[in-house]
Amino acid sequence: MRRSFRILALSLAAATAAVIARHRRGTAPAGHGVSHRRRSARNVEVARLGTRLGTGAVTHRVKRARATSESARAELDAAYQQRATEQVAERLGQMKGALMKLGQMASYLDAGLPESVRQTLAQLQQDAPAMDGDVARWVVASELGRPADELFATWDDEPIAAASIGQVHKAITHDGRQVAVKVQYPGIDEAILADLDNSDLLGRMLAMLFPTLEPGPLVAELRERIGDELDYRAEAAAQQTFVEFYRDHPFIHVPSVHTDLSAQRVLTTDFVEGDRFATMLERSRAERDRAGEILYRFVFRSLYRLRVFNGDPHPGNYLFGADGRVTFLDFGLVRRFDQSELDTFGDLIKTMIAGEPAAFRRKVTEANLVSPNAPLDDDEVYDWFSHYYELVRHEGPVTITPEYASKTIRHTFDAKNSQMLKWANVPPSFALIQRINLGLFAIEAELGATADWRRIAEELWPWVDGPPATELGQQEAEWLARRGLAAG
Fold it and tell me: Which pTM does this prediction carry?
């Protein structure tokens, strides 16, 4: 691990120096959240990080050699690992884009990481280093044609959140509405392209974060999806689709979009108060179970009723309100499905639950999930895929554990040790839906959420359209009736 941090820091210098210094609409003021300096300056800065990590490693080895007990050496190892992780996390936060996304993914996907590493990387979920207020104002004026002070009655230069692609400022409109204004970092599009063009770096970073996995598929997933999040106009349209569907819902809330104050790199929505995910983790078992059920219902109700999936289940994208509602944020990665794709998902669920290996094998082959020439028998294919359906194969309460989430990511990407993965394929309709297995269930595992997922799923599966299984299910059924919406 110590050597990996040094390799990572030195690799960052070569991979990120290509970020271009000028935004397509002009030159941003100094102090912006993505480094736009010359190649040589970026190389020097990141090389300095590598030197600091290397020096720290030498110092650590000396101290460790002088330690008189195994417990003392373990304490020194933990302290060194924490310092190194903090330095790397700070650098990823400054670089934003794809590199920061990797840190975010690692912080909640893989329960196998040391807890100190996970906690440090988790800061990237909502507390990344921000760009200066003057730069945010420049982006707003560039995109909307007028200064922030004219567009809004009040504007707060201090961001309330900063993430991998943009940061959020609080403002008040001229008609008195509190709003959250997401402002994209100038040049982040070019920075992301520079990151993604260096697949070798991404692979090495993933190998460091997930040491037992084959990084290729994860790199491909990152390359395929992160660029979709750069156009806030598309995000605004997607978010408003969810707003309209979930209007007046008893426990799911999506902030309305202010289209007149939004553009390609600025997105203005209603401001919402609420606790962050980390706070929810400190609450009672009953509250965490309730939150887990709401997240589950949101994903699968949206998929099967709205035919839309918000593909970024992420701890930083939820706010837990005092009124019991969960507010869902960030709709930059949304995919719409047609009925034939949903029918395929349903066929796979039906044959899996029915315990029909031969029928299931036919379905996954027809869906192009497995090569028709795979030298595997029906039971092998059925058993391998059964992991993804474990929560709904049987009735009764099931707790989603960190061990299950960690096993899922290895099950999905450990091509070195899986005969099945050598013959598997991920067609377009399944590429983003895999975020349910990797993202949603990792978050549910953080909550330790317990529920009878099978009975809840039967409410949401349109081919079953089961009765309410829980109190939340009853509330949702009443909401559906008021809205005149079919339950499935």
Answer: 0.75
Which residues make Cβ contacts (< 8 Å) with residue 176, sequence separation at least 6? Answer: 153
Distance from the Cα of residue 168 to its chain's centroid: 17
Q: Using one digit for the tens of pLDDT, what is the confidence trace for 15-28?
A: 333 332 333 344 55
Contacts within 8 Å (CB) and 24+ apart, 56-60 = 56/80, 56/83, 56/84, 57/2, 57/3, 57/5, 57/6, 57/84, 60/2
Residue 179 located in a structural domain: no
What pLDDT is recorded for position 68?
81
| Alpha carbon distance 168, 179 (integer Å) | 10
Question: Looking at the DSSP assignment, which residues form a beta bridge with residue 180?
Answer: 170, 269
Q: What is the pLDDT of residue 313?
A: 82
Q: Which of 127, 152, 167 marks a domain boundary?
A: 127
Examine residue 235 and state whether it is found in any structural domain, yes or no.
no
β partners of residue 166: 184
Q: What is the pLDDT of residue 74?
A: 76
Asked if the structure places residue 263 within a domain, the reply is no
Q: Which amino acid is located at 66 in the chain?
A: R
Backbone dihedral angles phi then psi of residue 53, each to the nearest 5 degrees: -65, -40
Rounded Cα distance between 485 and 488, Å, is 8
Q: Look at residues 84, 110, 127 and tell me which one is the last residue of a structural domain.
A: 127
pLDDT at 174: 97
- What domain range includes position 119? 2-127
Query: 323-342 burial, b if ≥16 CB within 10 A, otherwise e?
Result: eebbbbbbbbbbbebeeebb
As for how many domains the chain has, the answer is 2
Whether residue 200 lies inside any domain: the answer is: no
Low-confidence ranges of the chain (pLDDT < 50): 1-26, 31-32, 36-47, 49, 93, 96-97, 107-109, 111-112, 124-125, 212
Distances (CA, A) of 177 to 130, 170, 242, 269, 373: 24, 11, 20, 10, 60
* Closest residue by Cα to residue 20 from 40, 33, 38, 43: 38
Residue 398 CA to residue 404 CA, distance in Å, equals 11
Confidence at residue 11, expressed as pLDDT on a 0 to 100 scale: 39
Structure tokens of 367? Answer: 């869906």
Q: Whole-angstrom Cα distance, residue 232 to residue 331? A: 9
